[in-house]
Amino acid sequence: MTIASETAEKSEDSPTVSNQPSHGPAQSPVRGILLLVASTVFFSLCDVITKHLTATLPAVEIAWIRYFTFTCIVVPVIMLTGGGGLFRAKRPGLQALRSFGIIGSTLFFTQGLRYLPVAESTAIYFISPILIMALSIVFLGETVGWRRWIAALVGLAGVLVVIRPGTDAFQPAALLPLLGATSWAASAVVTRRMSGSDHPLTTLVYSAVLGCLVLSVLLPFNWVTPIGSEIELATLMGLFFAMGQWLVVLAYRYGNASAIAPFSYVQLIWAGTLGYLVFGALPDGWTIVGAGIIAASGLYTAYRERVRMMQARRSLSDQAPDCTTRNRGRTARL
Prior knowledge:
Region (Disordered): 1-25
Keywords: Membrane, Transmembrane, Transmembrane helix
Pfam families: EamA
Domain EamA: 31-163, 173-297
Shape: globular
Protein name: EamA family transporter
């Protein structure tokens, strides 16, 4: 899970992708994929430490440590590189709304880790691409073909396989990462609504700073002083989170979103592996099957999004010669 809009679960939701400056680095899809995969390792490590800390620290405090560490890193870096203008947003209201969605997502997911294995929480959270699609229909008026509707239903079925409502295996806590995914999807829809009005780093800064400020208000009511190794682990968690965020930004500077975003599903593998190595929590068969269904649904959704974008570009290129011909005709008449 990331603050940056360019996460695994979106292809065109990413401001870093859609608004890449023309003077940026040359496209290198392989490098972008490797950077994105590396980011999933850091996020998985962050989630494992988060789960360990939830045994003694409140979710608000853990989330605050993440945001505070990231803010302390990203803000000075941007200021030192002469990016002071990036702190001015053209649509601050939408930036704030987006930030609130991400804060809610972080809190729900962190609280879910208190009760659920890392692999199960991660698998449920990866339903977010399907939720983004559904919310985009309602709030953005986007049209979705029958293929993506089927993919959405398949993804929902995968979530049901993981949480198994109505059975003895069902845990109400499984709704927490689902709520987190919904909050994240809402923030992604707001990102689309902004339509690249602000620089991607402006969006990143707003998310980090506002998240830190909001959680700082809640912190006095949810503070438990870390002791012993908790201090080192909390610091390490914040650093892993910041490193993952930065790698995501770099990944989408080198590669097109629709090409590299599907590789974020490799995080399901890291989540299951690290959850077993650290906590001895081996995902059961249902969780593995459900995670596979969710991943397949998300990958197909990303594929259909890529096809849709290619068709749109092809349509524009087909119209271009007609426009040129008409302009030439006007010139001749003049």
